[in-house]
Amino acid sequence: TGGVYTKEDLRAIVEVAQEKDLLIVSDEIYEEIIFDGKKHESVLSIPGAKERTVLVGGFSKTWSMTGWRLGWAVAPKEIADKIAKIQLNTTSCPVHFAQVAAIEAIRGPQDDVRRMVREYQERRDLIFEGINSIPGFSMIKPAATFYAFPNTKKLGVKSSELADMILNEAGVALLPGTAFGPEGEGYLRLSFATSKEMIKEGLRRIKEFIEEKFPNV
Question: pTM of the entire structure?
Answer without folding.
Answer: 0.90
